[in-house]
Amino acid sequence: MPRTAAALIIGNEILTGKIQEANLAYLGQELFKLGIVLERAVVCRDDVDVIAEDLNGLRADHDFVFTSGGVGPTHDDLTMPSIAKAFGVALVRAPEIETLIRGYHKDRVTDDHLRMADIPEGSKLFANEDVPWPTVAIENVFIFPGVPEIFRLKFPILRPHLADGRSFFSRAVYTNCDEGEIAALLGEAAQGNPELFIGSYPRFRGQDYRLKVTVDGEDEADVDAALDAIIAGLPADKIVRVD
Amino acid sequence: MPRTAAALIIGNEILTGKIQEANLAYLGQELFKLGIVLERAVVCRDDVDVIAEDLNGLRADHDFVFTSGGVGPTHDDLTMPSIAKAFGVALVRAPEIETLIRGYHKDRVTDDHLRMADIPEGSKLFANEDVPWPTVAIENVFIFPGVPEIFRLKFPILRPHLADGRSFFSRAVYTNCDEGEIAALLGEAAQGNPELFIGSYPRFRGQDYRLKVTVDGEDEADVDAALDAIIAGLPADKIVRVD
After folding, report:
1. Domain total of chain B
2. Looking at beta carbons, which residues of chain A come within 8 Å of B204?
3. ipTM, interface predicted TM-score of the complex
């Protein structure tokens, strides 16, 4: 069985539509490459009890949990105290992070800036020379900021810690079929290959195809064989291309 | 207390990052205008038991639930049977929808196309002349397709059914402050106005400001007063504009 993950996306601004959520698709793609299935995501509001309860549910049910958002210095940045509460540990000031904050803000540093150095007791820090600001993790929970650029800067540092040599393989055929026309074909393929993920996605906007059919799985030969079987069942004049 | 809502976003393609989720922000904004707080969103995979359990949790805890995705004709489109299971009712063929499907596909219609007319027993249908394809609802659950263009076409038809004359008011000040610098000011404003939502959002990309501060609430005068108090506490030379 592949390893599993969940995402906890924290912030009223995502739920009111003030900010478009922009980390989930990236996280899903990155985990997929590492052979980890992102099974679930929860978007919750800025509330310590809600965050703590959601986190405890997700970390019990999945191998990894990735949180996004709520790590700034303001009153609505509640992720660190919420995670400490979920684990039943204290918030403690991390000297490595305090040094970075003081180095950055110099004599303009405020108590609220320094609050960003407070992390759950027992956390580990992941950083390297290129990205010195550490990612905080406690047990199987990895804590990321919501700002997409920073999320993408920090995630790659974790790759070697998450990799176990497995990956997924993904192939696709782009067609001019409509979904109803080939639903039976795809249903058979899915039933015959319960270990694979078979999906069909109507085109969203101006593309050169109408429907993309994907096959994902851990075994490359199985993925290829399932895609070949689907292609053999498609009307040849409606195949646009194969990836 | 304002009415509350949750979103259930259904589909492996969102979790693997094959498709960027694109309905949540729109839904949050639209509900906000109707005075409804979107409190929570769950993204779950294409699995009948998972969808049914999530739906039952969300519909018990919120006034409304909006689902997105999983309503096409293929094997991974499981929303309708899952919702029927959650409510403990049968799936029944809706003659109004069957007529639309047969009219569209004519003699090329397949059993899989017609499966899109199967809805939970006891559902209501919402449609109008401009958008004849109905939105299916059962009790407090409204069922939408994942394709963003269709979601946006169908949602407005529900507005009169969801409106109760209340709304939220939202104001904002754009500043060149950093968050740590004004976190204490915002924390005071939030503590003094527990009925308002006060948020601060660092700029994402090239904008003319560094930090946007927002005040949302049901009472327009309270919102204005809280924003004015925040503005009075900001360094005057760091205010970019007020909305």
Report:
1. 2
2. 19, 147-149
3. 0.90
